[in-house]
Write a structure and sequence with these properties.
The complex is a heterodimer of chains A (500) and B (583). Chain A has helices at residues 2-41, 83-99, 110-122, 135-142, 150-153, 170-176, 201-206, 208-215, 228-241, 258-269, 296-310, 321-329, 343-346, 387-400, 403-410, 425-432, 439-445, 460-477, 481-499; strands at residues 44-48, 58-62, 74-80, 102-108, 130-133, 188-191, 195-200, 247-249, 333-339, 358-361, 372-373, 377-381, 451-452. With 500 residues, chain A is an alpha/beta fold. In chain A, the strands form four sheets. A five-stranded mixed sheet of chain A has the order 4-3-5-12-6, with helices on both faces. Chain B is built from 16 helices and 17 strands. Chain B has a five-stranded antiparallel sheet. Chain B has a five-stranded antiparallel sheet with strand order 7-6-10-9-8. Chain B is rod-shaped and about 195 Å long. Classes of the chains: A alpha/beta (500), B alpha+beta (583).
């Protein structure tokens, strides 16, 4: 009897333990189910890259996405040494902290970078996963070796470009992101620079009366009255009358493409262009038609450019970008046609003698408009890379092109750069315009009516080479503009026939 | 059938041995399972270690190849060299090529070709121009093309020396304009590959470097790589281990990709060699396990023997006891439960022996009494008839007193000889006493009186026969004798027999007013010393034991006497009301 009683008690204890276990399991699973329910109700989650209060710091992702998906991957980003690359180098640790992806920012001067990129792609190697895609140096040549980013942007399971691709200017995307058509997204706009007019505001103000007296007008850069002709006149007057500076203006007909970009501004402001086809200046074309070098606008531009260069003293006719900026910083020239990205250096009091004295405006007007050549680039992915590195590269692109990085670049203490995101323009105009003196001129210059997009061709290198060689020859040998134009056309036709 | 169902008896020793063997087998079985897991882990570690070695070598090879690739890139990045090459000016570009050749000791020679012309620095390879992979290079835009190892003749002075060279070739491209200018080929001695993977070589193993087309770039032993195996190596896995069978032997292929995944370093080795140390370890462990099993079994048998030996000894001693030898005592100097068991057993044997002694004594007493009665029974009928005849003769002659005495004696004898009955009623016992006293009155001249106060309900009480007569006889014998010796005048002896009821039964009390019983007398009474004056030879001790045998230990006889104050003696017989016989 006692034994039966003991067995009964033992059985009851077991049942109680079992019930306790089931109840505790139910409680735990119930809790976790509740959490799952919460997660399931959130379709997206927000990842903070930096300060919580940063309005631009959030990148939304699918709730089940793991930012550590590519933990341990090491990427190499071949990029031009500019302010954007500097900001990325400084901020990239935050990206690494969240994703576990280490990114080596390999920044270098533009020419070396282009050579390395050319070598990377002709060798079909994968030394660099992230590619700085210059539309006029890399995109047209190696678009077939760049990964189609649409497959990532359209993948619902991974993060996308914040705000979508529509956050970028339509024209910038056509130039930077695509080649030939919109089938393949080769790059996401990363940095943007536009040529604007740098001028010594203090000189213009101090010598306002004298200039008005001698020239018969009040020079006002950025207005339609400030034409290329007046630019030449003012430059000459300053060279002659203003002791604070040595030169009124400088020109950059040196190596590389500075002569080409300067001339292109003049050409477009007078209503001219190189080719008839509109797509040449947007999506680009493998082959363009006839070179319009013998058009009146082209000939007028050649003539004006020749005059513009010749009015400068010989020693400042053949500068390059760096030399020009150095002279301006030293206060040796009152005006300079240069990329807006040089403004931070010019405004840096530690480096520049003219900091705070500079005014910024759109380039002088021609007969038709003020044309300001565009020079942006995108970030793309080397298609020779492994799949995991491609995925890691995409995450980096999402982060590097996000509003918070672009606004950080813009608000950089030592001088920022204009974002490629058009969705930030309103914010900059409303809140931060005063912080960057060049911002107003740059935003204006980037408008469709002011911007100039140079030809993007399958033979871009050869085309630029023809233009540069003949322009330089014209200046060096003082050739007639018609002769130069004819030679350009002949060289271009020869180049096209060779490629066939 | 019942026999078949009966449990087979097993010795404790065999049971312990079986249990130890069973536990050992289970333990060794579990150990075997655990060891198998450990073996798998160790084998995996071996595989991983081998894979890591192969990966390390492939990284080293990658580094060597990368150096050559970078050198070719440097040549292409050298604008002056390219420009002079483009212009067909060997005086300008050959010294620069020589610098590149000298900068890397792994390079045997650098060869360039442009428009059907070729120049070289380093080894003078015979028919070097024909070694350019023009067909493959024309399909490229500038990427590197590797050529497998082949034998070439190197011209040294006037002689030709055969060498095994592999080479890297690429288009010479103007890196700015991307214009294709010519071809570049860098020749390398296979020895640099052999040295790089020398650390992987071991007896029985083969090393291969395979390109993506399956061409053998380099290998040990000079054998071609198994093309079927190449197909089994996945392209999307940077490294791994494969097992396969070849010529009825199990092999392991450890592979690692390098040179931008275009090449594979493969080490093939028989599985038995790769895991030889693991197999040896397994053998040692198995031998150890077997030894441990034997040791456990031996120790088990030894200890089971230690446990069962005293049990077996105890069993033997118990069997002797079973045969009737109650003097045997088992050993109790065992420091465990068996010692306690032995002590209990010895105690039990002692108890049994005591009980048996008691039974024997009781039986002996009974036999003595019966013998006594039998003695008195010698031809009792003849005596009885003779006494009756004498009684009739005395009555005819008018001797009434003689006749009465004879009547009493006859009655006394009748009861005495009635051996068929063990129990008689109290009334019958009283009647027996009456007849006895009638005779004793003739002897002691009626100097005593007896008084009966028997309760009516006690008259039918059954008692062992002849238990009152010896008591009354003692009263009469010692009471009258004492009076005679001490006071020299006849003292009137009064005997009183009465019954009383008590909680546990009935008490029959016989008391007298005699001198009481001295301790010496008491001892004599209970020792049953013979007294020629006594009618019965049965002592009070006998009476007491008979009562106890009949009714149990709680009943019996009790004597109350105090001779010093002359209060007489009192004997109390305690019997149950309704006696139940023990037997």
């Amino acid at each position: 009897m006692g034994r039966i009683l003991k067995m009964g008690i033992k059985m009851l204890k077991r049942i109680a333990l079992l019930l306790l276990f089931i109840m505790s399991t139910e409680i735990l699973t119930g809790c976790s189910n509740d959490n799952e329910g919460e997660d399931a109700s959130n379709e997206i989650k927000v990842e903070l890259f930096g300060e919580r209060e940063n309005a631009f710091g959030n990148i939304t992702t699918p709730s089940d996405f793991d930012w550590k998906l590519c933990d341990g991957v090491i990427l190499d980003f071949l990029v031009e040494n500019n302010i954007n690359a500097n900001i990325l180098s400084r901020e990239v640790d935050k990206f690494t902290e969240i994703t576990g992806i280490k990114v080596n920012i390999r920044s270098m001067d533009f020419d070396t970078m282009v050579d390395k990129l050319n070598m990377e792609f002709i060798s079909k190697t994968n030394q660099y996963e992230l590619i700085y895609v210059d539309p006029y140096q890399t995109l047209y040549r190696f678009y077939d070796q760049l990964e189609d980013l649409n497959q990532y942007e359209n993948n619902p399971d991974i993060p996308h470009i914040v705000g979508g691709l529509e956050s970028f200017s339509e024209q910038d995307k056509k130039v930077c992101s695509y080649f030939l058509d919109e089938e393949k997204l080769c790059a996401v706009p990363f940095d943007s620079t536009t040529m604007i007019l740098y001028y010594r505001k203090d000189i213009f103000e101090n010598y306002e009366a004298e200039m008005h007296r001698d020239l018969g007008y009040l020079p006002s850069p950025g207005t339609s009255s400030f034409t290329w002709q007046r630019y030449e006149e003012v430059a000459g007057w300053i060279t002659e009358h203003v002791p604070e500076t040595k030169y009124g203006s400088i020109t950059m007909s040196a190596n590389h493409n500075s002569i080409y970009t300067e001339f292109s501004n003049l050409l477009s402001s007078n209503g001219g262009d190189y080719f008839l086809e509109e797509e040449v200046s947007s999506y680009g074309k493998i082959k363009a038609g006839r070179l319009l070098a013998d058009s009146p606008a082209f000939l007028e531009a050649l003539s004006q450019y020749k005059q513009l260069v010749y009015q400068n003293p010989e020693e400042v006719r053949t500068l390059n970008w760096t030399d020009g900026a150095e002279l301006f910083k030293e206060g040796k020239t009152a005006m300079m046609l240069s990329w807006d990205e040089n403004a931070p250096v010019v405004e840096n009091k530690k480096e520049s003698e003219v900091a705070g004295k500079v005014g910024y405006a759109v380039l002088p007007f021609g007969t038709e408009r003020s044309a300001n050549i565009y020079g942006g680039s995108g970030i793309g992915i080397n298609s020779n890379s492994s799949e995991i590195k491609k995925m890691a590269s995409w995450l980096f692109i999402v982060w590097a092109t996000s509003p918070q990085i672009q606004i950080k670049t813009f608000l950089e203490e030592e001088g920022g750069n204009m974002p490629t995101r058009s969705d930030l323009n309103a914010l900059i105009t409303a809140q931060y315009m005063a912080q960057l003196p060049q911002a107003s001129a740059t935003i204006t210059a980037q408008k469709k009516s002011y911007a100039y997009y140079r030809p993007k061709l399958g033979q871009c290198y050869e085309f630029e080479h023809i233009i540069i060689t003949n322009l330089r020859k014209m200046l060096e040998e003082d050739l007639r503009t018609e002769e130069t134009a004819r030679q350009m056309i002949q060289d271009w036709e020869s180049c096209q026939s060779e490629s066939q | 059938m019942r026999k078949m169902k009966a449990k087979r008896k097993r010795t404790i020793q065999s049971q312990i041995a079986r249990a130890i063997a069973g536990m050992s087998v289970v333990t060794i079985g579990l150990f075997a399972v655990a060891f198998q897991s450990v073996r798998e882990i160790i084998s995996r570690q071996y595989g991983n270690s081998a894979e890591q070695s192969v990966c390390a070598v492939s990284e080293n090879l990658d580094y060597i190849l990368l150096e050559i690739e970078n050198l070719s890139k440097s040549i292409l990045f050298n604008h002056d060299l390219i420009k002079s090459f483009q212009q067909g000016n060997p005086e300008s570009f050959l010294p620069q090529l020589t610098s590149y050749y000298n900068s890397n000791s792994n390079i045997e020679g650098i060869y360039v070709e442009k428009d059907e012309n070729y120049w070289f620095v380093g080894s003078n390879i015979e028919y070097a121009k024909d070694n350019f992979p023009h067909e493959a290079l024309n399909l490229t835009s500038g990427e590197i093309v590797w050529m497998p190892t082949r034998e070439v003749n190197v011209q040294i002075l006037s002689g030709r020396v055969p060498r095994d060279y592999f080479s890297m070739a690429r288009k010479i491209v103007d890196i700015k304009s991307l214009e294709e200018i010519g071809f570049l080929c860098i020749e390398l001695d296979e020895q640099i590959l052999l040295e790089a993977y020398a650390s992987l070589t071991e007896a029985g193993a083969n090393i291969y470097i395979i390109d993506e087309e399956g061409n053998t770039i380099s290998c040990t032993g000079g054998e071609y790589f198994n093309s079927r195996l190449l197909q089994e190596i996945p392209d999307d896995v940077p490294s791994g281990v494969l097992e396969y069978n070849e010529n009825h032997q199990n092999w392991v292929a450890i592979h690692s990709s390098f040179n931008q995944e275009h090449w594979k370093l493969v080490k093939t080795i028989p599985k038995a060699i790769l895991y030889s140390e693991v197999n040896r370890l397994q053998l040692w462990v198995m031998a150890g396990a077997g030894l441990v099993f034997i040791l456990i079994l031996t120790a088990g048998l030894f200890y089971s023997n230690q446990i069962t030996k005293p049990i077996q000894k105890m069993m033997k001693q118990m069997k002797d006891v079973e045969k009737g030898d109650f003097t045997i005592r088992v050993d109790t100097d065992i420091a465990n439960e068996l010692g306690n068991l032995g002590e209990s057993f010895n105690h039990m044997i002692g108890r049994i022996q005591k009980l048996m002694d008691e039974v024997v004594t009781a039986e002996r007493n009974k036999n003595e009494m019966e013998l006594e009665i039998l003695r008195a029974q010698i031809n009792p009928h003849f005596l009885y008839n003779t006494l009756n005849t004498i009684r009739l003769m005395a009555k005819i002659k008018g001797e009434e007193s003689i006749s009465s005495a004879l009547v009493a004696l006859v009655k006394l004898l009748r009861i005495s000889i009635n051996l068929g009955k063990n129990l008689i009623t109290l009334q019958e016992e009283i009647e027996y006493i009456e007849n006895y006293l009638l005779i004793q009155r003739l002897r002691f001249n009626q100097s005593f009186q007896i008084q009966y106060e028997i309760r009516k309900e006690d008259e039918a009480v059954l008692i062992p026969k002849l238990i009152l007569q010896p008591i009354v006889e003692n009263s009469l014998l010692y009471g009258i004798e004492e009076a005679t010796e001490e006071s020299e005048e006849s003292r009137h002896l009064e005997i009183r027999v009465f019954t009383i009821c008590c909680e546990t039964g009935t008490q029959i009390v016989i008391e007298d007013n005699g001198p009481g019983i001295s301790p010496e007398t008491m001892e004599r009474i209970f020792k049953q010393e013979k007294n020629i004056n006594k009618f019965s030879k049965v002592g009070l001790n006998n009476v007491n034991q008979r009562i106890k045998m009949c009714f149990g230990e709680e009943y019996g006889l009790k004597i109350v006497s105090s001779p010093s104050i002359q209060k007489g003696a009192k004997v109390i017989i305690h019997i149950p009301c309704c006696p139940k016989w023990k037997d």
